[in-house]
Amino acid sequence: MVIITLLEYFLEPFTRNYSEHIYDYWIICLFHAGVITLSYLITYILFGFIPRPKVWKLKNELLFAGVLIVIGGIGNFFVRELIYDIDNLKWRYFFEELRHGILAGSLFYFLIFNLNRYLYNSFRADNSEKSNEVEIEAYVSADSFSIDPNQILCVKSDGNYTEFYLIDGINVSKRIVRQTLEKVAEQLSSHSQFFRSHRAFIVNIQMVKEHKGNASGYQLVIDGLEFLVPVSRANVKKYNEHLAHH
């Protein structure tokens, strides 16, 4: 709230007619910042009623920002009666506040989003402990790597190669390593969230959003993946038991 107030006060992004102001300009800025702060809380509460995906995609972030900006614009329209000494309840002022919210809000949200992402990545880099990472050894030593097991969505066999589907923040990537799935399963065996669901798949149970199917086999839905991860009929019971412990 303080940051928003200072930015509006010093940058003054839009033309102001001070003769219309009931209060000093810094108090007007405080009103606007309060509306945006309250709008954020309302948006956060609204999204709290929506099942949150385990993988927060860019489209989810953009939807959140859009709802926040619209609510903020509507809020600033209604607060005009408290800060401007004119006839405020007109459609042109309504659309003006929405336009201001989109222009100023988009820029501000872009700055905050990237700052948060930078701080998050820096924090992870500074506080990650090697002991929490898993070592993936490949046939070719140059392909070997270590990674936080919580970044692994699933592992898929492709003959003598293995495809790792990884999540980093909101980005999903694929990394191909020359190694058999059997060897990878051994390397992941000390981490209980991984389950060999199929002869060609290992899945991170913690990343499963839902499963479809019946005793003849499941299809697992994982946010960020464009395909379903199969659970073979022979592994359905073991999968349910494994899931019960997570």
Structure characterization notes:
With 246 residues, the protein is α+β, with helices and mostly antiparallel strands. It folds into 2 domains: 126 residues, no CATH class; 114 residues, LytTr DNA-binding domain (OB fold (Dihydrolipoamide Acetyltransferase, E2P)). The protein has 6 helices and 10 strands. The chain has a 5-stranded antiparallel β-sheet, sandwiched between helices. A 3-stranded antiparallel β-sheet has the order 8-9-10, with no helix packed on it. The longest helix is centred in the middle third of the chain and has 37 residues.
Return the domain count. Answer: 2
**Principal-axes shape call:** elongated
Question: Quick one: how many beta strands?
Answer: 10
Structural class: alpha+beta
Reported for the largest beta sheet, the result is:
5 strands, antiparallel
Helix segment tally = 6
Helicity level = 40-55%
Low-confidence stretches: none
Rounded to the nearest angstrom, the radius of gyration is 25 Å
- SSE order, one letter for each helix or strand: HHHHEEEEEHEEEEEH
How far is it from the N-terminal to the C-terminal residue, by CA? 39 Å
Percentage of β-strand residues: 15-25%
- Averaging pLDDT over every residue, what do you get? 84
Walk across the major sheet and give the strand order. 5-4-3-7-6
